[in-house]
Amino acid sequence: MRRIAGVLLSAVFLMTLIGCEKSLSVEGAAEGSSVLSVITRSGETDAEVSYPVTVYVMNQEGVCVRKQELASASDQLSLKLQPTTYQVYAIGGAADEAYTLPSIDEATATSPIALKTGETHGDLMAAYNTVTMGENESNTLTLTMSRKVMELRTVQIKGVPSAVTAVSVMFSSIYDNLLLNGNYSEGTSAQTMTLARQADNTTWQNSIEQYMLPANGKPTITVKMTTGETTKSYSYNCPQELEANKHIDITGTYTGGELTLTGVITGATWNGTTTIEFTFNETNAETTDSGTTGDDTGGGSSESGVEDGTAPAVNTLYKDCYVIDSYTDGDYKFVTVIHKNEQEMSGAGATEESLLSDIEAALATYDINGITGWRLPTEAEARKTYPGLINEVIASVGGMTMNASLWYYHSSDSGLKTFKGHTYNNKYTDGQRLRPVTTLKFHK
User: Fold this and answer.
1) Each residue of 222-265: pLDDT tens digit?
2) How many CB atoms lie within 10 A of CB 409?
3) Diameter over CA atoms, the chain
4) Which listed site, 158, 243, 281, 335, has its alpha carbon 20 to 30 Å from 315?
5) Three-state secondary structure along 112-125?
6) d(C-alpha 64, C-alpha 7), whole Å
7) Mean pLDDT of the chain
8) What is the pLDDT of residues 382-423, one digit of tens each?
9) Are residues 155 and 110 in the same domain?
10) CA separation (Å) from 296 to 231, 292, 305, 327, 335?
11) Which residues contact 118 (CB under 8 A, 6 or more apart)?
């Protein structure tokens, strides 16, 4: 994987872009009488800045008036501007060969820094600041860069049977894109790391580090082991969020029917260390046959477990169910839908065991337009459940209104929980409603 090298500078003054004789081409409007010089520095003690750094300058109307790329710390940024207030954005580590960056004509604060097809993320950083320029004034602006990705450093699965022909680890739901303002887009995707068999014939490990955007909520981690044309997947709903500026080290051991993974997430100095421990066993496993039949060129499918037609978009209907999430993995797109109807399942006074039994019995009764496999949403899926949007869309098919002031059930690693509004991990006894979800598989 292409890793964009950072430049190690002092912790106080990292990159001075003033007085350099090298001339850089600048895109933008007519020059003014005021001079803006920019200094960028890392917000971390390791003093690392990712290059190239692309700087966008926007006026008070949000119109981009300057765009300039700095290839290294030796490049200067000194701009002549009209006297007014500007918003200055910087994106580090987004090389042209890997990313599609907004042009000066189309750039806004929420423009995506989109990864090109077939490329992997670099060490992305972002910064933002404002500055007010007076007439004939010289001003120096400091942009403090912060890392916007995490790094899959070591991913290792041990004790893999010799018959296994491929092993991979998939992370979902991961943010789709970084935005120019340093935030992330609301869409989600999946990122897969492919492992290679090691010399001992039982250990599979990544050969290079891999960057990825953080998870949108608490992620699902899926280990896939392929034998011939059959793939067995072990999925785990991670109770911790995977955040930017973290190193991720995962070691897993397969012990004949049970896969135990222990992960350590190490942050930069100011982020501390988080330890994640989780277990995969056969009750979490899903087996799929990778052999295909019929026309596999898109638009339909005759494969078992694969839906016909094109995958629906988020915030639309599919067979009278509302789409809350989607992500792509390999040749397939996975779409999670929430049922248009719900039922009361009060947890007041019930034990968790008895309530779960009642919920399982209720889930078995859900069947709509041939869609089955209904289950409780995970916390990550609960975070994508917006009653206002859902109610607006399902009204067209006579769906039941989802009440934003009621507690709905979701599953977590620590058992049955409830959510409403922006609270996602409340006690099960507050539960009032069951609104199940299921995940469907489509060809891309």
Assistant:
1) 888 898 888 887 777 776 677 888 888 877 777 766 555 555 54
2) 24
3) 76
4) 243
5) EEEECCCCCECCCE
6) 28
7) 78
8) 988 888 889 888 988 899 999 988 999 999 878 899 998 778
9) no
10) 19, 7, 14, 19, 19
11) none
CATH of the domain at 250: 2.60.40
Top-confidence residue, 374 or 220: 374
Comparing C-alpha atoms, which of 206, 209, 233, 235 is closest to residue 221? 235
Q: What confidence score (pLDDT) does residue 17 get?
A: 31
C-alpha 411/C-alpha 381 separation (Å) is: 10
Amino acid 303: pLDDT: 63
| C-beta neighbour count of 299 within 10 angstroms | 9
Cβ neighbours for 351, distance < 8 A, ≥ 6 positions apart:
none
What distance in Å separates the CA atoms of residue 82 and residue 135, rounded to the nearest whole number? 8
Encode burial over 200-220: b for 16+ CB neighbours within 10 A, e otherwise: eebbbbbeebbbbbbbbbbbb
**DSSP codes of every residue in 194-241:** EEEE-TTSS-EE-SS-EEEPPEEEEEEEEEEEEETTEEEEEEEE-SS-
CA angle 297, 301, 306 (to 5 degrees): 125
Which tokens hold the place of 284?
């979490």
Judge whether residue 179 has pLDDT over 50: yes
Contact 101, 69 (CB under 8 A): no
**Residue at which a domain ends, from 147, 173, 191:** 147
Q: Give the model's pLDDT for residue 301.
A: 39
Q: Which amino acid is at 220?
A: T
Same domain, 175 and 92: no
